[in-house]
Design goal:
The structure holds 2 protein chains of 2 kinds.
Chain A (H helix, E strand, L loop, with lengths): L3 H36 L13 E5 L3 H14 L7 E7 L3 H18 L8 E6 L12 H16 L20 E4 L3 H23 L12 E5 L10 H6 L5 E4 L17 E2 L6
Parallel strand pairs in A: 1-2, 1-4, 2-3, 4-5, 5-6, 6-7
Helix pairs in contact in A: 2-3, 4-5
Chain B lengths: L1 E6 L7 H7 L2 H9 L4 E5 L1 H18 L7 E5 L6 H7 L8 E9 L4 H6 L2 H4 L4 H9 L4 E5 L6 H12 L4 E2 L6 H8 L17 H8 L4
Helix pairs in contact in B: 2-9
Classes of the chains: A alpha/beta, B alpha/beta.
GO biological process, one term (chain A): dolichol-linked oligosaccharide biosynthetic process
Keywords (chain A): Endoplasmic reticulum, Membrane, Transferase, Transmembrane, Transmembrane helix
Membrane topology (chain A): Single-pass membrane protein
Amino acid sequence: MASTPQILCELSLKILAPLAAIGFLVVLTILLSLAISQNASIPKVRQRGTPVHILVVLGSGGHTAEMLYMLENTFKSSIYTYRTYVVSSGDALSAQKAVEFEDTFARKEESDNNAKDYNIVTIPRARRVHQSYLTAPYSTLRCFWACLLVLGGRHPAQRRLPAQFQSSHPDIIITNGPAVAVCMLLAAKLIRSFIFVSRWAAGRGSKPDISRLRTVYVESWARVRTLSTSGFLLLPVADKFLVQWPTLAGRRAWWGMKKTEYCGWVVV
Amino acid sequence: MKLCFVTVGATASFEKLVQAVLQESFLAELEKYNFTHLLVQYGKGGQHIFEKYATERVKSSDRAHGLDIGGFDLRPSLTEYLRMVQEDSSKHQELGMVISHAGKAPVQFWITKSMESNRFSGTGSILAALRASVPLVVVPNPDLADNHQQELADELACQGYAVIGNVADLPSTVGKAANRRERAPFFLNASKNSLDVPLSDELSFVD
């Protein structure tokens, strides 16, 4: 008759081994799909002059300032016809800065009805100051859920997009690394994988379609030789990872992944 | 007017820097380079030092090397002060200089404070000064600087965008920064990078 340790050993083999195998497969699938997604080239099908919806993730203080400096040099209302700004709850100043930015932008471009062309959405923080780590997973999930809603255009604070937009998803997402950016970019990835799977299931896999929810991460100008925590986490996720110092160029999450690109100082 | 604007940030006190810019030797050096005004954003921790200095100055009733000295604890934006450092002949302004701290408080503290204070966090004022194209001295706070802020300061100094200052020997940096006018990389207006190309890439336009 087998002794108790032997039975336990057999049991654990029967249960743990398949679990480990499944876990390994899941991790492998995720890693592979991240690699495929990052390296896939996107079909060039977007016509110039068609409406573009850009989603800007603003963080607290320093991140917001840098982001708005960048957009100052970049934005043209002829390209980015609709802008959604995402701020964290409790960060009224970033929201105010975004409004000021839009006002000066409108003055510069001399467009009169631009108040209709942008939207500011406030979403809950992933982890508030001094919040217990026990409840942090819950609030992070709440933040993630809010990101999913925003990306699907279903957040209560969002207005309806102008009629010329065919999709409620933003075309492009830009961030420079506040904590909420991690949630936002992962949410975008999740939605994209759903779109990919459903399209594949419907047998439209080969038809080129306009890519939406593309993500651009710009590492903070203050990072010279080391990536920030958000940057480190998003390195395998972002479609384009830009750095402002040559020392950070060419980094990648792991072998086979896309490398970071040096773009110069875009904040000055 | 030729202004030397000093900012110590809001989140952590940098009393050593406030002390250093109120020293006789530093003021004398400012006078030597024709500065007329000294403005100190001294933060919460520096208030008592600045006020003590101000009352002593009044008592001794001599003008501090011909300098007008002013100070405040915090303001939501530095922009207007940076503008006072820029050259502007219509306002009789000569090109001054900015002395900025580099280093932020421990993360927890940094998040607790209101958003206003975040904007002062080290790199923010450095970037603002660079954008204003004014001579810049960066003084890392030895007690607080994160590794990456020290790296930033080193790299900026290495490429000639800023001078690294040390609270123990601040007077010597005045000359180094004030003589920087002619140095080309100091003025960034020439090349403007933008995100046009990378964003267009991702938008996958037909052309």
